[in-house]
TrEMBL record:
Protein name: Enolase-phosphatase E1
Highest taxon listed in the record's lineage: Bacteria
EC number: 3.1.3.77
Record's cofactor remark: Binds 1 Mg(2+) ion per subunit.
Length: 239
């Protein structure tokens, strides 16, 4: 516990790490579930919606799936919290409109925002890498009850622009995009499989283990670990 890590940038997972899985599953998922039918029927002509619908058909091997069938698939994926890219795209669309309307407000664990502000003030760059789409991440960080956190964040990565979270190549892609050397990047996540992939790409890692989160019992799989962000000390080069 209380890891001290030398790093120039921190990359944040969201669900289970900055924010409670329970909030995502109990608040955000029902919100998207209740709006999929209208999205898939009334807005199927919009390029992003059309691309996501094509993505669902491809992933399920059902080229003729209509809106009703696709909605069923999306809801089944929601039930199993499957991080399928077309689902995340459609959720991102629905959620960003919900945040803009004021229907939704983001949630961060109490220790997170003070730590993000302190790291940012100390010159540590902050990035997000989540299965939630970039659109969803942008809405999430700009709609925190603590204020707009987006100015603290230097870049947003998801499974579309970086790749799957359990593959080292995705972390190499992010390192290249940020220009930060791999061994100066610190990844914070609740999932050992993601931490393993980041470590295989040469990153520093800390497993965030919060009681009640789905991966809590699994442990951190040999990674440094912390129960809250304020236990983590980030030391920049030359400081
Ligand atoms: C505001 S992003 C919503 C959370 C979400 O849908 C998700 O899949 C988060 O997964 P993560 O990779 O951050 O654990
Ligand atoms: Mg997570």
């Amino acid at each position: 516990m209380s890891p001290r890590i030398e790093a120039d940038a921190v990359v944040l997972d969201i669900e289970g790490t900055t924010s409670a899985t329970g909030f995502v599953v109990d608040v955000l998922y029902p919100y998207s579930r209740s709006r999929f039918a209208a999205l898939l029927t009334e807005r199927a002509g919009e390029p992003e919606v059309a691309r996501a619908m094509a993505g669902v058909r491809e992933l399920t091997g059902e080229p003729d799936a209509d809106a009703v069938r696709i909605e069923k698939t999306l809801n089944a994926w929601l039930d199993e919290d499957r991080k399928a890219a077309p689902l995340k795209t459609l959720q991102g669309l629905v959620w960003s409109e919900g945040f803009a309307r004021g229907d939704l407000v983001a949630h961060f664990y109490a220790d997170v925002v003070p730590a993000l502000r302190a790291w940012h003030a100390a010159g540590v760059r902050l990035y997000v890498y989540s299965s939630g789409s970039v659109a969803a991440q942008r809405a999430w960080f700009s709609s925190a009850p603590e204020g707009d956190l987006l100015p603290l964040v230097s870049g947003l990565y998801d499974t579309e622009n970086a790749g799957p979270k359990q593959e080292p190549e995705s972390y190499r892609r992010i390192a290249a995009a940020t220009g930060v050397p791999a061994d100066r990047l610190l990844f914070l996540s609740d999932r050992p499989g993601e931490l393993d992939a980041a470590r295989a790409a040469g990153w520093r890692t800390v497993g965030v283990r919060r009681p009640g989160e789905p991966y809590y019992e699994q442990g951190a799989g040999g990674h440094a670990q912390a129960g809250t962000f304020d236990e983590i000390t980030v030391v920049r080069r030359g400081t």
